[in-house]
Amino acid sequence: MNITYLYYLLKSTYQNIRQHLVINLISIFTITFSLVIFGLYSFGYLNLQKTLNDWRSDFQVIVYLQDSISHQQLKSLRHLCESHPAVSRVVYVDKNKAMQHFRQSLGKDSTLLQGLKGNPLPASLELQLKSKVQGMQTVESLVDRIRRKPGVDELQYGQQWLNHFFSIMRLLHIFGLGITGFLFFVTIFIVSNTIKLSFYSRRDAIDIMELVGATRFYIAIPYLLEGLFQGLIASLLSVAAIYGIYYYLVAWLQGSFPFLQGMVSLTFFTPRMLAGFLILGVLLGGLGFLVSFKWIRGN
Amino acid sequence: MLMIRVFHLYKNYLPTVAVLQDVSFTLEAGDFVFLTGASGAGKTTLLRLLFAAERPKSGQILIDGKNITSFSRRRIAHVRRSIGVVFQDFKLITYRTVFDNVALVLEITGTPRNEIKKRVWKVLKLVGIEQKLYRYPLELSGGEQQRVAIARALVNDPQIILADEPTGNLDFEITTEIMNILNNVNAQGTTVMVATHNQLLLQKFKRKIFALHNGMLHEDVLSKENQ
Predict the structure, then answer these.
(1) β-strands B32-36, A87-93: how paired?
(2) 8 Å CB contact of B110 and A8
(3) Quick one: which of A84, A96, A91 has its CA closest to A144?
(4) Where a domain ends, among A157, A184, A219?
(5) CA of A228, closest CA in chain B: separation in Å?
(6) B112 to chain A: which residues are within 8 Å by CB?
(7) Is A268 helix (H, G, I), strand (E, B) or coil?
(8) Is the same domain home to A169 and A290?
């Protein structure tokens, strides 16, 4: 295909769009609507995940050690914990430090400990988990391996809290996939129908083009370009709409719930996500064309 | 130069109603022929078969020695580029200007823009409508629209012009002008076939006549007198 030919295809696309502005606007509106819904869902999901991860960063697995644990056993246990892919940090708290922490946590009531003979508190290893840990199974396999090690007395971790966390994330995944699939199906259906409508309204012109020797390729390409153009404009509009919503949401949260500052902070899409969003919009427009193309060929 | 040969052509839309029956004829390069017959005689069907808008039930249509009845859609598109077609209802794209309507034929072959400008201007001048270059079809009279349609048929220098009742909606003065344009094109060697049921036209422009009657083609008596 030479440049001249491409120029004529683009010119034909421009003429089609200008001539059928209303139909194009309907298509753009439909894709924008779907992308805004999808974008808001993604935005919510992204921020919820971030908030939960922030909260989870405080989550620890505490391994209480027997007083009789040997230096070699402790070394081996530490090595196991530190080399595990789910663990980000390991802190050893010896008996004295444990008592010190306990005293600090009691504050004024620490005088209660004055009559205590010896130190009954065990030494421990505090394990911090990486935020990318995705399931309960990873945590449980780690706990099982530690439990089998000699010198380990007891393990403490927020099993119930973790279970809830992973369940919520799983539900969000399923709900997100479901709603996204449905929305995209509806969008492609509507876009393909608006392309059919636009094709139908130009049927006379297409007949004429065929009569003067235009190939199917020459006739169809402007429709594909039209679909891609609709997708591109719609994705730009939806990014602007989502940014607008984000901007006002942040202002509203800061104004109405100042106490949430520090606990909840909203994040907008990264540049890579935005690029993906634009590509998604263009793909939706293109897919709408492809779905209607079989129908166009038959007509 | 292209020659049209038609052999034993049959066409029917309903199983029992034959539109064309055993139609055979030859058009030599540079011929001018009228195709006549009553309404519904099959004139339009025959023309549509000649530019492959329809396929026959049986028979062969050879253009430049190639049987177009078995051509794929892609090859048909290429055949049509060597045939200029003019319709009674003009068939102009209403949202394209006069220039763009005529240029379309060259655009689909990827002709460079400067070349298109020159050729469109030249052909519009030939049919006498060069002043209306940037008008839209609906801003023109019927006669002017038909001139644009003829310009579109001519712009690619086709070797065959097929015209289906090209003057059907026009008064006699404009009809004469349109026929003069087609005569001039023919004088330069282009084969022309004009379907018409206008007897005045047949008498005024004395050319070979093919008459369709009950789906069968006959060379008309008047045709022999004309020759």
Answers:
(1) unpaired
(2) yes
(3) A84
(4) A157
(5) 22
(6) 4
(7) coil
(8) yes
Interface test with B, best of A24, A202, A210, A211 (most B CBs within 10 A): A211
Q: Are A42 and A64 in the same domain?
A: no
ipTM over 0.90? The verdict is no
Selection from B66, B146, B57, B158 nearest residue B106 by Cα: B158
> Which of A15, A211, A215 faces B85 most closely, judged by CB atoms?
A211
- Estimate to the nearest angstrom the gap between the alpha carbon of A122 and the chain centroid: 41
In chain A, the number of structural domains is: 2
pLDDT in tens, B86-134: 988 889 999 889 999 999 999 988 899 899 999 999 999 988 899 999 9
Q: In whole angstroms, what is the distance from residue B160 CA to residue A213 CA? A: 14
- For chain B, how many helices (H) and strands (E)? 8, 10
* Residue ranges of A 259-288 with Cβ closer than 8 A to chain B: none
DSSP per-residue letters across A206-230 = HHHHHHTT--HHHHHHHHHHHHHHH
Query: Nearest CB to B108: which of A7, A207, A212?
Result: A212
Rounded to two decimals, the pTM is: 0.68
| Sole residue written with tokens 């600090």 | A104
